[in-house]
Specification:
Strand order of the largest sheet: 2-7-1-8-9
Order of helices and strands: EHEEEHEEHEHEHHHEHH
Structural class: alpha/beta
Function: Essential for recycling GMP and indirectly, cGMP.
Catalytic activity: GMP + ATP = GDP + ADP
Pfam family, one: Guanylate_kin
Bound molecules: adenosine-5'-triphosphate, ligand LQESDW3C
Keywords: ATP-binding, Cytoplasm, Kinase, Nucleotide-binding, Transferase
CATH topology of one domain: Rossmann fold
Shape: globular
Number of strands: 9
CATH superfamily of one domain: P-loop containing nucleotide triphosphate hydrolases
Protein name: Guanylate kinase
Strand content: 15-25%
Amino acid sequence: MASERRGLLIILSSPSGAGKSTLARRLRAWDDRIVFSVSATTRPPRPGEEDGVDYHFLTESAFKKEVAAGGMLEHAHVFGNFYGSPKPPVRAAIEQGHDVLFDIDWQGAQQIRNSELGLHTLSIFLLPPSIAELKRRLESRGQDSAETIARRMQKSWDEISHWDGYDFVLVNADLDETEARLKSIVTAARLRRSQQPGLTEHVRRLQAEFEDGGTP
Ligand SMILES: Nc1ncnc2c1ncn2[C@@H]1O[C@H](COP(=O)(O)OP(=O)(O)OP(=O)(O)O)[C@@H](O)[C@H]1O
Ligand SMILES: Nc1nc2c(ncn2[C@@H]2O[C@H](COP(=O)(O)O)[C@@H](O)[C@H]2O)c(=O)[nH]1
């Protein structure tokens, strides 16, 4: 089939610490057609985070300027900081036939589903196996202060309460199993009829072959 498919916008959301970034890394390592949308944020970098790789770290005024100029596909205020997905890299990746992966909260997911780009979205919500395990994961990550962890735990239900708006919901208990399920979901989404624009042509060719007596 000759025609190029249009890329998918793959959205991962979850309460903080449930495993989005970990699984996003695994998805990207699996298939280089998946391009990660590097978000902009006003939160300070964590140790080891690189500007332009993990996030684009912006001042609040630079962030607001970007939003005012229409440069964000979506944006939200999360845990006291601004976060947003810059539009130009998403457009460029889609034009090159890539899928774009977003690690964003429910507000951003909602905005992307309703965005003017009119692209196909695939949204997946990750649930933690328990609230106690969520806290353990945030603590074991070892990158946030006790105060930050407490704030994120306090907001965890707010995020979880939006689970119902997603195409798929996975309980991220065993990491390898969740990874395998995610890959299956992406594979299946790429096989949707709407994602295979050459299908109609292919069926027409089969019909022509059939009518030309190509059957035994
Ligand atoms: N299935 C799992 N089992 C055990 N530990 C996990 C699992 N998934 C992720 N983790 C660990 O939990 C911690 C938090 O994961 P991660 O940073 O990916 O969460 P996140 O959802 O991206 O968080 P945030 O929203 O704050 O960015 C990490 O230390 C990660 O290694
Ligand atoms: N709406 C958006 N949410 C985003 C974006 N980038 C990240 N996030 C979400 O923020 C929290 C906290 O992230 P952290 O890196 O500070 O732990 C998490 O839920 C992310 O999914 C974005 O561009 N838009």
